Amino acid sequence: MLNGSYSSSLVLISLCVAILASYTALDLTGRIATAKGRAAYLWMVGGALALGTGIWSMHFIGMLAFSLPIELGYDLSLTALSLVISVLSSGFALWLVSQPSLPGRVLALGALIMGAGISSMHYTGMAAMQMQPGIDYDPLLFAASLLIAVGASVAALWIAFRLRRNTPYVRQIRGGAAVVMGIAIVGMHYTGMAAANFADGSFCGALDGGLSGSGLDYLVLITTLAVLAVALLTSVLDARLEARTAELAQSLTLANQELTQLALHDTLTGLPNRSLLTDRIEQAIAKVAEQGGCFALMFIDLDGFKPVNDAFGHHTGDQLLKEVAMRLRGHLHSQDTLARIGGDEFVLLVELDEPEDAVGVAAKQVNLVSRPFRVAEQSLQISASVGIVLYPGNGADQMELLRNADAAMYHAKSAGKNAYSFFDVSMNSNARLQLQLLQDLRMALEQRQLRLFYQPKFDAVGRQPIGAEALLRWEHPQHGMLLPDRFIQLAEKTGLIIPIGEWVLDEACRQMRSWMDQGYENWRVAVNLSAIQFCHAGLVDSVASALQRHRLPANSLTLEITETTAMHDADASLMVLQRLSDMGVDLSIDDFGTGYSSLMYLKRLPANELKIDRGFVRDLEQDSDDAAIVSAIVALGQALGLRIVAEGVETDRQQDFLTRLGCDSLQGYLLGQPLPAERFMADIERLAVGQA
Ligand code: C2E
Ligand code: CA
Ligand code: CA
C-alpha cells in the first residue's frame, strides 16, 4: 500500500477556506432573506457560485495537501464536474434556507440531498485522479464520511436558517457558526481521504493532459479567496446600504406620522381639526348604517370670546381656548370626538344610546364653559351656545349635519346665548338664506346696491323740519329693497360694516352739503353707528375726512349710537366720544331706555341728545308706566342739558303728549316716512308751501 502524507500548511489553509466559505454562506442567506424579487434570485445565483467554489476549493486544496510517493494529476472534466456538483448543492442549500419555514422533515431531506451532493463532489474529485488500479475505500470510514457530510449539512442548514435574520450580535454568532461548519466540512473531507487506500504500484492516470504541477494550489487558493472576498464584500456593502435604507425609511415613517398629526389636528389645542372630524362623522354614519344606534353632533360656539381676545390680547385668548378645550375634553368618553374647527368654534361628536341622552351631554358642555376660567392671573367669564343635530334624522351626510348644527347654534345664540338648541327644519332654510345673503352683501358696495333713505326730524313746538336721519337700504337684485334688520347684523358679524359704514357717512355728508347749498344751513343729518364701527380705530379719522371732503361744519352731523354701545367698555367709548365731541360733532344716544345705563356714567358722556326708544312711544296711550318712564327720561335729559327726541311717532295723540311732556324734537311715520333724497325733498317743499 502507498502511504500518503499531508502538507500541514495546506491542511490549515483548507480549514480556513472552509470557515471563510461557511461564513460567506451564512452572510448570503441573510441577504437572500431580506432581498426581494429579482434581487433575491441574483443573490442566490451569486451565492451558489461563491459558496460552491469555496467548498470545492477547500476540498481541492485538501487534495493538494495530500501527497503520495508517486506524482499526482487531476482529470480536467471530472474536476470540473466536482465543481459543478458543489455549486449546485450550494445553490440548493441556499434556496432551502431562504424558504419561509424549515420544518424538521424538510430539513432532514435537505440535509440528505446536500450531504449526498458534498459527498459526490468529494468522491468525483477523488475519481479525477484516475488511479490505476482504482482506489480501495475502507467501508467504515467511507460510511463515516457520508454520515459526517449529512450531519454537517443538518447543522449548516439549521444554523443558516436560524441566523438569516439580522439580530444583535448576528456577525459574532455567524462567525462562531462558520467555525463549526468549517470544521464539519473539513472533517468530512479528511475522513473521506482516510478511507482511501492506494494499492502498491498504483499510478495516476490523470497525469497526462490533467491538471498537475506546483503552483496549482496557489492558483486555486487565490481564485477562491478572490471569489469569496468579492461575495463577502458585496454582501457587507449591500447590508450597509440596506440598513441605511431601512433607517431612512424609518425616519420617513416618523416624519409621515408627524405630518399626519399636523394635518389632522389643530396646533393650538391638539384637538382633531375639521378634516379629521369629517372623517369621524363619516365613520359614525357608516357605523349607524351597519349596527344601528345613533349619534349627536354638537356645534359649540363660545359667547364673549372676542371681547376677551380684544381686551387681554391674543396670547390670553389662546390660553383660554386651550383651557376650554381641556375642560370639555376632560368630561368625554374616549370614543367621542371633540374637534376645533375655527377660532372659537368646537364640534363634538358623541355616540348615544338614546337620542334623549343628547340633552344631558349638551347641558353639561354649556355648564362647563359657563364656569369661570383662570387664565394668566385673570378670572375670565364666558359662555357657550350649542346647536345639536341627531343622526339619523337631522341630515344625510356630514356636510348637511354640520350646516344644520351651525344653524341650531345660531338659534341658541340669538335666543340669548349660554344655552343649547336642537335643530329644527325652519332653521335650515334660514341658515341657507343667510349664507347666500352674505355672499351677495360682499358685492353690494361695489355694485352700488346700497341706498340712503332720509326720515325727517321736526321741531316739536314749531313743527319745522330740522334735519333728517339717514337710514340704510339695500336694493337687492332678487329680494328687492331690504331693510337694515335683514343685513346689518350680517355686516357686523363679518366686518363688512366698516366699509359700508364709511360709505354711509360719506353719502350722508354729501347729501347734507347739497341741502346746505339749497339753503337749509341749520339742518343736521343723523348717521347711525354700530358698535363695531364705534370700536374701530379709524372712526374719528373717517368722520373728520368725510366732513372735510364735503366742506361741512362738524355741528351739521349727528352720530347716533345706541345706549348699549355707549355703555359697553365705558372708558374706551368715553375717549372716542370725547374726541368726536371735541371736533364739534353732534352726538345722540339712540334707543334710550332699552339698555342698562348708569346715571353717573350718563353724566360724563359728552352727548347732546337723547332719543327715547320707540317702544315707549308706541305704548304711551295704553301703558301708564311708559308715560311715567317717558316723563322721567325727559326730566333727566333736561337736568343733564340734553335735547330730547322721540322717535316712532305715529299718531296725533302721541305727538301732542310728547310735545306737552317737553320733547324737543319728533320723528315718526306720522310726520314723515324714510324716503330717497329726491322724494324726501319734494315732501318737505310741499309741507313748506302748505304752511305758508
Ligand atoms: P333706528 O336707529 O332706531 O332707526 C329708526 C327705525 O325706526 C328705522 O327703521 C325707521 O324706519 C323706523 N321708524 C321710523 N319711524 C317709525 C314709526 O313711526 N313707527 C315705526 N314702527 N318705525 C319707525 P329702519 O330704517 O328699518 O332701521 C332699523 C335700524 O337699523 C335703525 O334703528 C338702526 O339701528 C339701523 N340702521 C339703519 N341705518 C343704519 C346705518 O346706516 N348704519 C347702521 N350701523 N345702522 C343702521
Ligand atoms: Ca337711529
Ligand atoms: Ca332708535
Q: Helix- and strand-based class?
A: alpha/beta
Largest sheet composition: 8 strands, mixed, barrel
Bound small-molecule species: ligand C2E, calcium ion
- CATH architecture of the largest domain, please? Alpha-Beta Barrel
Strand order of the largest sheet: 14-15-17-18-19-20-21-22
Shape: rod-shaped
What's the name of the CATH homologous superfamily of the largest domain?
EAL domain
What is the first-to-last residue Cα distance?
Answer: 162 Å
Number of strands: 23
CATH class of the largest domain equals Alpha Beta
Instruction: Quickly count the helices.
Output: 24
CATH names the topology of the largest domain as: TIM Barrel
Helix content: 55-70%
Tell me the number of structural domains.
3
* Unreliable parts: none
Using only CA atoms, what is the Rg?
50 Å
Overall average residue pLDDT: 88
- Beta-strand level of the residues, as a percent range? 15-25%
Protein name: EAL domain-containing protein
Domain EAL: 434-688
Organism: Pseudomonas qingdaonensis
Domain MHYT: 6-199
List keywords for this structure.
692 residues; alpha/beta; Alpha-Beta Plaits; TIM Barrel; 3 domains; binds ligand C2E; binds calcium ion; EAL domain-containing protein
